Amino acid sequence: MDKILSGLVLINETDIWTTYGAFLVEDKRGGMDNLTSILTPSKAKEDTAVDFREEHGEKYLSTLTPRNEARDVTLHFALYAQTQATWLTKYRAFISFLKTGTNGWLDINFPQIDLTLHVKYSDSTKFTPLTYLWKEGVHAAKFKVKFREPVPII
User: Fold this and answer.
1) What is the pLDDT of residues 60-81, one digit of tens each?
2) Which of 28, 72, 108, 154 is deepest in the core (most CB within 10 A)?
3) DSSP 3-state of 115
4) Is the dihedral of CA 129, 131, 137, 143 positive or negative?
């Protein structure tokens, strides 16, 4: 799996697969939730308009300067480990890494699409165990993490 998953997602220059056993996953085969979230453009900020009662419509400046609103990006992660103890250690470390970042900031790099998002951790919205964590053996789970991109690049 190292050849397949290594180097696909780097957070603050850390390969999340190599360090934590974490990778992006979809809820169903052929799903595109991660890519959709990564590439959905932010909303545009509203332009200031003047609305005179005596005139039709609204008036805007002759030159508009479009600006982006901040946006949320939700990524679906899975985390895999060979043993229960390793899984629990890596899961706690990965969540702590996402919450802490570098001074609270995360640069999530997707080399395959040449894109880096500058975000902060917001919330972990759902956790789904894929194995029974109370028994010894290989363990895996998936979870969603919401990030806030204050200055969107898209």
Assistant:
1) 888 888 899 999 999 999 999 9
2) 108
3) strand
4) negative
Residue type for 86, please? T
CA distances from residue 59 to 44, 49, 123 in whole angstroms, order as listed: 18, 6, 40
pTM for this predicted structure: 0.87
Is pLDDT at 129 greater than 90 in this prediction?
Answer: no
pLDDT band for 131, please (50, 70, 90 cuts). confident
Of 86, 142, 109, 100, which is closest to residue 16 (Cα–Cα)?
109
DSSP states of 65-111: ---BPPEEEEEEEEEEESSHHHHHHHHHHHHHHHHHTBTTBEEEEEG
Instruction: Give me the residues paired with residue 144 across strands.
Output: 76, 126
